[in-house]
Amino acid sequence: GAVVSQHPSWVICKSGTSVKIECRSLDFQATTMFWYRQFPKQSLMLMATSNEGSKATYEQGVEKDKFLINHASLTLSTLTVTSAHPEDSSFYICSARAQVTNQPQHFGDGTRLSIL
Amino acid sequence: ILNVEQSPQSLHVQEGDSTNFTCSFPSSNFYALHWYRWETAKSPEALFVMTLNGDEKKKGRISATLNTKEGYSYLYIKGSQPEDSATYLCAFMIPGDSGYALNFGKGTSLLVTP
């Protein structure tokens, strides 16, 4: 089956640090990649959608200058949490989809981010 | 944000029991409904993508039905096994500014004990 690799899986860092999370599709070309965030006992919330070679589209309430998304190739998207603060601590997970809209999304393992 | 409701929130069954959970979603502007299984420390795994009213899909002991007119989908597990223990997520596909995105429910957490 399609494999998506997300890394790192766990980050602890000081407030003010910028953190980059990578999401790679290993065996298929991901035309579209999605970034989600999940707070405890809540559902996965879509943060942004990125299509290869285009600027990401952010959901309402998600600061694009805070969460920088780059999708420069068909196999790699990155999410950079800039100047992270304790309230950014959360579980971040990416997914990728090939060109056909009605195909399932393939998820990474997620990144647990803790800002001290 | 469109509400996707899943029930029950959690479920504990004995090995061999059959079980089912519900996903409710807005019935207007339906495009597709996804089911995923998410085991602890792993990535969510796609189970089904359902698009047509009356759809019924099956994968081994797991099956799902879809009613788009009334806005619900059922997931059934026949003869539950401990390895079925996971959180089961449903997600309603909605059109957005950059195409179709998934709107997830909070999931049903299933524990199957021997």
Order of helices and strands of chain B: EEEEEEEEEEE
Number of strands of chain A: 11
Greatest interface (CB-CB under 8 A), with counts per chain: A-B, 30 and 27 residues
Write the element-wise H/E pattern of chain A from the N-terminal end onward. EEEEEEEEEEE
Number of E strands of chain B = 11
How many helices of chain B does DSSP assign? 0
- Shape verdict of chain A: globular
Spatial gap, N to C terminus of chain A: 37 Å
Largest sheet of chain B: 6 strands, mixed
Percent of residues in helices of chain B comes to under 10%
List low-pLDDT spans of chain B: none
Task: List the keywords.
heterodimer; A: 116 residues; mainly beta; 11 strands; B: 114 residues; 0% helix; globular
Description:
The complex is a heterodimer of chains A (116) and B (114). Chain A is mainly β and 116 residues long. Chain A is 0% helix and 51% strand. In chain A, strands 2, 4, 5, 6, 9, 10 and 11 form a seven-stranded mixed beta sheet that branches. In chain A, strands 1-3-8-7 form a four-stranded antiparallel beta sheet, with no helix packed on it. Chain B has no helices and eleven strands. In chain B, strand 6 (56-59) and strand 7 (62-67) form a beta hairpin. Chain B is globular, with a radius of gyration of 14 Å. Chain A binds chain B through residues 4, 6, 32, 34, 36, 41-46, 49-51, 54, 56-57, 59, 93, 95, 101-110, and chain B through 4, 32, 34, 36, 41-46, 49, 51, 89, 91, 93, 96-107.
